[in-house]
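cache lookup: miss for this entity combination. No prior model stored, computing from scratch. Input as submitted by user K.M.:
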Amino acid sequence: MDKLIVQQALEMALRAGADQARVVLTESSLNTYSLLDGELERLQHSLSSSLYFQLYVDGRYGTFSTNRMEPGDFDKYLREAVESTRLLAPDPCRTLPPKELYFEGEAADLQQDDPAYDNIAPEAKRELLEKLGTEIDRSDKRIISVANEYEDYRERCLTIDSQGFCGETSGTLFSLSTECSVKGKGDVRPQNFWYDSTMFFDTLPLGCGKIALERTLGMLGAKKIRSGKYHVILDRTVASKVVSPIFTALSGGAIQQKNSFLLDSIGKNLLGEKLTITDTPHLPGLMGSRWFDSEGLATKEQDIIRAGAPQAYFLTTYFANKLEMAPTVESVSVPNLEPFGATSAEEMMANIGRGILITGFNGGNTNGATGDFSFGIEGYLFENGKISHPIKEMNMTGNILSLWHNVTNIGTDYRECSRWRIPSISFENVDLSGM
Amino acid sequence: MDKKYLDLFNVQEGQLREVLGIALQRGGDYADLYFEYTVSNELSLRDGEVNAVSSNIDYGVGIRVVSGDKTGFAFTEQTTLAEMKNAARIAAQIATLPDSVTNIPAAFTPVKGTNYSPILSPWEDHTVTEKMGWLTSLNEKVFAKDSRITKVLERLTDSNTKILFYNSLGESFTDERPMAALVVTCVMEENGRIESSSSSRSFRMGYEFLNEALLDEMAQEAYEKGVILFQATQPKGGEMPVVMGAGGSGILLHEAIGHAFEADFNRKGTSIFSDKLGKQICDKSINIVDDGTLMHNRGSVNIDDEGIPGQKTYMVKNGILNSYLHDRISAKFYNTASTGNGRRESFRFMPIPRMRATYMENGNCREADLIAEVKNGIYVDNFSNGQVQIGAGDFTFYVKSGYLIENGKLTTPIKDINIIGNGPEALADIIGVADNNRIDNGTWTCGKEQYCPVSCGMPSVLIKQLTVGGVN
């Protein structure tokens, strides 16, 4: 990346009157090819770049970004930005991070970027997509349409600040996906999808077409069942729905605004002793691995939750200053849940006997202040350890804190193509509403 | 063509004709160039002080080629002739007839639209200091409501987008699109219990958006939405009648039927309404509209993002499915005129059929009578988000707060529940429509593939049965 332009931009920001500044240059590339029923339906190509300035001016703070990259354009822009920032109320908590918390040293390759990205021929991408397009046997008259898509994305970021931090990251992502639509009873046309993604083109697997069709046909004949308390399994594709509210509740913004169900929670077992989550940000080849966050704060392997007790909030420098605590890191990198009990959804079904396997959520939300949640669900009723029939148009309702006290299994079957390594998880006594 | 716009993007009509020719050099049917220059600003208040400002400039051109119902698309952030030609060559790849020659008309005819967002006082004429005063005042108004309020967070955003558009049919237009939004969130604490609530407003307006009445209304709304939560619980779940209060209940229309009426889904045969055009789908007294012509409305469009003037479209007329929501591609497929629903998030995206302001027209019942009809059910009027499965027709929306209805009367407050139903069934199950239609002017944003500002509205309605989330 062009370090010179970022260095010049930083110098301009300081000359314009900022006491301290951080400048981030982001460059991204996206290519998409889509097939509808075997025919190319869409192709899309884009290249983007932008400069993002964080300015600290007389104890005040402003952020400014532009994709007009000519120095003559942003010189005037920065002078006006500094003047705007000077008009604000002072905020002494807005500072660059303590230098000792920056990542330092040699950043060993975490294998996030495919060096071949720029040299992959469009024909090779199209060929892969066309192979995917042949996976589904269209002789099944129930099939209305099959959409296949190839997408690749690269993002590079260069961050420099006036305390001397300089960090560069680069990541690539390649994905293949299939979405199927089939004719159901009456006017109903169930749809479902499957995808695979990798950080290296050569390792991108085929096969999602068949899985997508299986998942779609599996929804035929779905029906609502009686309301009640059920033993539920959240399939590995959807279990993050009950993990992500925990990370949100531990974020500095939520804690500082007292808008969190994990306020004053450090060291207290609020989530039940069976939940342990660790962050492992330095393993090469895992999606999400990183040496530092967007402020340059060094990441580290650490417990997020240990035996139900939060171990750390996610604190940027600003929210740490506000809370008179030490900065940690802005967010989780690669979360891992400590497994116990059955290892997969299939094994959980066999052990539990009767319950609901949830394979999809349809809307819903969590109240960040209380942890109360309610989600639309779809999936399967299982009986005697085996799938009985699909279910739909039901809700799962409860509270995140009490839900985790009822966890009965945490598997090991997380998908490698996801940054969050969340496996299938089961909970007992969950309120479902239907008929 | 307004020369100011050509100068803004540093282009000339001759160059654009050349770029359109390259876009169609492999035999595409249609091409367009969508130039955008957006300046957006944000001020935020935290802990009683307006202490953060941000500003963003976004600039570029999206180049689209349509061949049948296929689309090639590329954009560039540099509007030099060389970069535009390069993007046009990429988009052209969607067509498959090399060395085609398409005559681009020698003169471009302006598309005439109506300005639904006239500005009285441009945002750029007002200083940060002036804007700060409104945020400080709103903060004071909210804290004055109740001693249980512990935190207030506010965000004021304003943006102005300038559009320059040319297409291969010889049409062109320029457009100016202001947008303003104010959001206030307050956190309240009572005996160790914490609840939060918010209020938002958004209009396509200039600085005149800000006024004392707006601040009073939002402070009261944020307070009322929050304080009720201390008495509220998650109710017993299951199937029951639901009265949806006027205003934000329009989310029902957006999720339950609006998306399923977007013609791209119907063209592909994947919508549950794909075979329903011209058929009776609900009571004949019901009319449902998607409207791009409401003055200053967040979802209004003077001219859509592919050169079709903004208009009002009856999706349901007298209970009959009257029209899908079309862009150019689906209109051609259905051999009808576009309804002006071709919209995009920015020059970085290709246009697709999107809703604007979606609402139901008034019926002739009174809300109180609808409530009185329900023995055991719920009343809901405060929502956060929704979703739909187009093919299965199952929609959901999340209820922040409402009330139980017991023996025809509103009783215990309820909160934090999801409601789920099936679009065609819910529509057919509307058994009463009140006379109190109201557009909700909150910061509604639709996330179908790309983000797009919309709004919704509804008179109070009684739905015979939906599945309500809750405890058992």
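stored under new cache key. The two ends of chain A are 58 Å apart (CA to CA).
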